[in-house]
Amino acid sequence: MTATAIEPIMLEEFLELSETKNASESASESIDG
Prior knowledge:
Elements: H1 2-32
């Protein structure tokens, strides 16, 4: 039960981090080329 309740939060945080990372990489690519 507890694990299931925590999982969505972890997933949400992971997605947020991924978005931030992708945004940073896209910005770097735009600057580089």
